[in-house]
Amino acid sequence: MADRVLVIGSGGREHALAWKLAQSPHVKQVFVAPGNAGTADNGKISNSAVLVSNHTIVTQFCKDHNIGLVVVGQETLLAAGIVDDLQAAGVRCFGPSAKAAQLASNTSFAKAFLDRHGIPTARWKAFTNPQEACSTDFPARVVRARGPAARKEVTIAASKEEACKAVQDIMQDRMFGEIVVIEELLQGEELSCLCFTDGVTVASMPPAQAHKRLLDGDQGPNTGGMGAYCPVPQVQQSSLA
C-alpha cells in the first residue's frame, strides 16, 4: 500500500473510500480532490484543489506530492479516461479504463454487452427518434438517458403515456443526449453485487441495497442513490459464496 493516496471525487462514495484507506497503517496521508466538508482536515484525510478534469495537472500533482496510488470514484472522470492517462504517465491507479467504464456510463453499450455475452437482462431498445421510442410495447418501462455531461436521467414509468412524456422531456431539447433507452421494468428486489478484480482473480464484496426512490416506501422519482445498506437481510450470504 502507498504512503500517500489520492482519492478523486466529491461524494459519499469517495468519503467512504478515504475513511477506509485512512484506517490502514500503511497509509500516512489521503488527499481527496475535490472532496467535501466531511473530508476536509479529518485526521489523515485532507482535501485538494487540484483540477481533476485536467489529467495532465493531476499527473503532475501526483508526481509533485509523491502519490503512490490514485483511487478514482467519480464516474464521469472514469468515462473520460483518467485511469488510462494516469497509468500511461506511470502513476498507479485503481479504477476501470475508459473502455471498461462504458459498462456504467453508456446504457446502450452495457445492454448490448449483456446480450452479446448471454447475460440475462431486461428487454430493451435504444432510440434516437422520440416518436419511435413512444411506440414500445413493454407493459411497464424504465426510460434512461445520458447526456454530454454524463448526467444520467432515469424515469420508472407505469404506463405508456408516462413513458412517452419522459421521452419527450429528455429528448425535446437534447439536454441529456441523443439516445434514449427504453427497458422493460422488472419487479422484485434490486441488489448491487460488486467485486474487485485485477483481470485474473475476483474478490467479491457482500451485496448491498441502495435507496433509489426519493421518498419513503419506494415512492417519488428515481434518484442516483439516496444511500445504501449492507448486509441485506433478504439475501442469504451463503447462497452467494
From TrEMBL:
SUPFAM superfamilies recorded: Glutathione synthetase ATP-binding domain-like, PreATP-grasp domain
MF term (GO), any: phosphoribosylamine-glycine ligase activity
SMART domains from the UniProt entry: GARS_A
Keyword annotations from UniProtKB, A to Z: ATP-binding, Ligase, Manganese, Metal-binding, Nucleotide-binding, Purine biosynthesis
BP terms from Gene Ontology: purine nucleobase biosynthetic process; purine nucleotide biosynthetic process
Keyword Ribonucleoprotein part of the UniProt annotation: no
Residue ranges of every copy of the Phosphoribosylglycinamide synthetase N-terminal domain listed in the record: 4-103
Gene3D superfamilies for this protein: 3.40.50.20, ATP-grasp fold, A domain, ATP-grasp fold, B domain
Domain Phosphoribosylglycinamide synthetase ATP-grasp (A) span(s) in chain numbering: 106-238
A Pfam family assignment: GARS_N
Protein name per UniProt: PUR2 protein
Designated gene of the protein: Gart_0
